[in-house]
Design a protein that fits this description.
heterodimer; A: alpha/beta; six-stranded mixed β-sheet; B: mainly alpha
């Protein structure tokens, strides 16, 4: 095999923000036609590294080489011209424009004085789509495509401006299992055509599946770049966190406990069918399945938001019918939504306000005014009890890390003293250490407060670790029930894919 | 290429317009005479022209409510100059309000870009600044008695017919100007990079920034474009009325916004087409004309207009909801 040339080489890069060192003497290079995994916890320096590679920020020390040529000052425009592209998590597409126009939008800058020739643009879009073997109508409006297809449009856009390196930032976090496999197919295809990728993800399985080599960052330092063959998932976790993360089950068998929730033959057309299960006091029940399997829809029905077409819900043996989520909350059901940032928190408001928003009614004095001191007291207790790392109760939630923001959402529900807590993919997009603390929190709630938890997830190792029982959902139905001791991670994955 | 949403809005509007016309015809056969239609088209050319400017601003994700003040200031300056210096050339008169409109539009764009305050706030403030200053300086005085060529120009028709009673009527030059501007606006939006960038900015401003578009230049273009059309419309308005009152135009912002939204422009940006906006203006014009023919009181006009705006906004929100649901279902 001939010697491969690095598309980009970052040498001895150091970057500080204020007094904080984001990157320290980091060496990073990506070879032509290589898929390079980049992993690290939040705050490990991944995004700073990407920003330096694309000219968005300048390093204090170190050198940047693109295709062997030293670049004295890399700007975003220069990076773009030299073929370094990023596909951001939000894709940065224009939802109101066509596929073809999104692919060639960058040309509007350079061809400012000419007319737009639609036929020409559509023909060239077909060529680019054809290179990937993607069947999309170049005239389709991008906002009408699925997220997975939109992502392909973003990748095509990079290819159309002759990308040599495409940096994919958390590309799989919103994809179903099949869509991830399809994306990997395209990555392999483009890799064969000589395009290099940097693949950034929290999902270590996927990193190991697609990457040729993996670079691990921890606290701004490059821990090392390893060929895939030398790595396992456990080893990767260890390298990222510096501590051993166990994959063994954290829960003890649940003694006979009384039934809290029972659903019987719950059906909602087009979403799920014939769903029956029970949840006991202090139990953590895992509900695992790919996106679109109906898991979130079932949870929302139990939370009173999507009335079932048929079937019954029993709370502590008594049948209940919820007209709204207010009914559900009154009956002691709490729901922590999947996207904490979008649905849960007011980021610019103080931690204390965000924690106490669910129990404002209890903090009001006889005359209907809010007791600020009582609010702070309650919030401070919650911060202590749940181990939220916040500078102060009146600091804005924005200033907290992702994992701690998630804890704020959790704590506000716990303050309502729920009997049942539904956690919808609570560890989505948070790093390994934050995941661990969320597991501990869930376990503590079940064990010490006797709260029953419905734990929705799409990660096999996680349900094996924290749940007493696991329900597997696929295409709107519950297809299997396991105890963690009965099944391996691999077997569980097979069951989910079907 | 304007998107199926926009296209379906237009088809839908044509249908509504046809139904409305039939209803108005049945209520009063006079409605469907060519004479009446030409009259409506002439009288609404002011509204039609500024609505096209508003469309471009709305597509970019902005909004301008100061255009009525811009049109007023532009036409007032023109009025003062042509009466004081007895300007005989209509073409020269026509050239006065346009640079004024563009300059005031540029001022809007500058403030919107630099302060990052929502354009609704900026342009409401500027509406009051422009209009207030004009009132202070002019003391609200009316201008009339324009030079003869300026008066004659208002009667210019592209097509002249004679009614049974022997009265001349026809397609006014101002209607032609309105439709011409609709076509030009369409060409700009559809075939010039700047037009496509306007759509892109309205669709996703962050993506536009990341793609390296010069955001200020796009904003400058859209606010100057509506400023230009406001100046031009100020000229048309002065011609139609043969009189300039400082308080004649201000207060009609809602009609224009209603026409644009009715025509498929989104207040969230990224959507809308000139054809839709022309149809939206026609819809509002027909309704008003119908009310006049039925001799309904002016207060009913307000009630009906308010109702139409609520209906249009609700329909467009409903459509967007459907769209979102459809997308989730994929």
């Amino acid at each position: 095999m001939p010697e491969k040339l690095p598309v980009i080489r970052l040498a001895h890069i150091t970057k500080r923000y204020g007094g904080v060192v984001a990157l320290r003497d980091v060496e990073f290079s990506v070879l032509l036609g290589e898929v390079h995994g980049l992993v690290g916890e939040n705050g490990s320096g991944k995004s700073t590294l990407v920003k330096i590679a694309t000219g968005v920020v300048q390093p204090e020390e170190g050198e940047i080489f693109i295709e062997g040529q030293k670049i004295s000052r890399l700007t975003p425009y220069l990076a773009f011209k030299r073929g370094i592209h990023v596909v951001h998590q939000d894709l940065s597409l224009f939802p109101n424009l066509s596929v073809a126009e999104n692919i060639f939008a960058h040309e509007y800058i350079e061809r400012n004085r000419s007319f737009v020739v639609w036929q020409d643009m559509e023909r060239r879009a077909l060529e680019v789509l054809g290179r990937l073997g993607v069947e999309l109508d170049p005239r389709e409006i991008v906002g009408r495509l699925s997220f997975a297809d939109q992502q392909l449009v973003a990748i095509c856009r990079a290819i159309a401006s002759s990308a040599k390196l495409i940096i994919l930032d958390e590309p799989t976090s919103s994809l179903t299992f099949r869509e991830v496999q399809r994306l990997f197919g395209f990555i392999r295809e483009l890799k064969a055509q000589g395009i290099a990728f940097v693949f950034i993800s929290h999902r270590l399985d996927e990193v190991l599946e697609i990457s040729d080599v993996v670079t691990v960052l921890r606290d701004g330092v490059n821990i090392g770049t390893f060929p895939k063959g030398e790595l396992t998932k456990a080893r990767l976790s260890f390298l990222m966190t510096g501590r051993e993360i166990t994959t063994e089950s954290l829960v003890a068998d649940l003694p006979e406990a009384r039934e809290i929730l029972r659903v019987e033959r719950l059906t909602r057309r087009g979403e799920y069918a014939d769903v029956s299960f029970t949840l006991h006091q202090g139990e953590i029940l895992g509900l695992i399945g790919p996106r679109g399997s109906g898991r979130t829809e079932v949870a929302l029905t139990i939370f009173g938001l999507r009335p079932p077409d048929s079937g019954k819900i029993f709370l502590e043996g008594k049948e209940v019918v919820f007209r709204s989520n207010r009914d559900a909350i009154r009956h002691g059901i709490g729901y922590v939504p999947e996207n904490r940032l979008l649905q849960g928190l007011v980021l610019d408001q103080p931690v204390a306000d965000n924690i106490t928003v669910t129990i404002l009614g209890e903090l009001v004095s006889r005359f209907g005014f809010l007791h600020p001191s009582r609010k702070i007291a309650v919030a401070e207790r919650a911060i202590r009890d749940f181990g939220i790392k916040a500078p102060a109760a009146d600091a804005p939630v924005r200033s907290l890390s992702g994992g701690n923001q998630q804890k704020v959402v959790l704590s506000r529900w716990i303050l309502t003293a729920p009997k049942i807590l539904i956690l919808d993919t609570p560890t989505h997009g948070v790093d390994v250490a934050a995941k661990e603390s969320i597991y501990e929190m869930a376990l503590g709630l079940a064990r010490e407060r006797g709260i029953s938890i419905l734990f929705i997830s799409d990660e096999e190792h996680e349900v094996l670790k924290v749940c007493h029982r696991i329900l597997v959902m696929r295409e709107g139905r519950i297809v299997r029930e396991y105890r963690p001791s009965e099944v391996t991670e691999e077997a569980l994955r097979q069951e989910i894919v079907g | 290429m304007l998107g199926r949403v926009a296209r379906s809005t237009e088809v839908y509007l044509v249908g509504v317009l046809l139904v409305l016309s039939v209803v108005l015809f049945l209520l009063n056969p006079k409605f469907a005479t060519l004479e009446n239609i030409f009259d409506v088209l002439r009288n609404n050319s002011f509204l039609g022209i500024v609505a096209l400017g508003e469309l471009v601003v709305l597509i970019s994700g902005g909004i301008d409510v100061s255009f009525t003040a811009i049109a007023t200031v532009a036409q007032y300056v023109m009025g003062v100059l042509i009466t004081r210096y007895a300007v005989e050339s209509v073409f020269l008169a026509f050239l006065i309000p346009i640079p004024i409109g563009i300059a005031l539009g540029a001022f809007n764009a500058f403030l919107v870009n630099r302060t990052r305050v929502h354009p609704v706030i900026i342009t409401i403030s500027n509406l009051n600044v422009f209009y207030g200053l004009l009132m202070v300086i002019s003391k609200g005085k009316w201008i009339y008695g324009f030079p003869a060529p300026f008066r004659d120009f208002a009667r210019l028709k592209v097509l002249t017919l004679v009614s049974e009673k022997g009265v001349d009527y026809g397609l006014s030059i101002f209607t032609v100007v309105w439709f011409l501007i609709a076509v030009v606006t369409w060409l700009i939006l559809q075939y010039l990079p700047i037009g496509r960038k306007v759509y892109a900015l309205g669709g996703n401003s962050e993506a536009a920034r990341r793609a390296g578009f010069d955001i200020f230049r796009i904003q400058l273009f859209v606010y100057c474009y509506i400023g230009f059309l406001s100046g031009l419309a100020g000229f048309v308005h002065a011609e139609l009325n043969q009189m300039i009152q400082p308080n004649a135009i201000v207060g009609r912002e809602l009609d224009v916004l209603a026409a644009a939204i009715l025509g498929g422009a989104s207040v969230f940006g990224g959507a809308g087409s000139p054809l839709g906006v022309v149809l939206g203006v026609l819809f509002i014009a027909f309704v008003k004309n119908g009310l006049i023919l039925m001799k309904a009181s002016a207060y009913w006009h307000q009630v009906i207009m308010g109702f139409i705006i609520v209906l249009a906004a609700t329909l467009s929100a409903y459509q967007q909801n459907l769209e979102r649901k459809r997308r989730k279902g994929v």
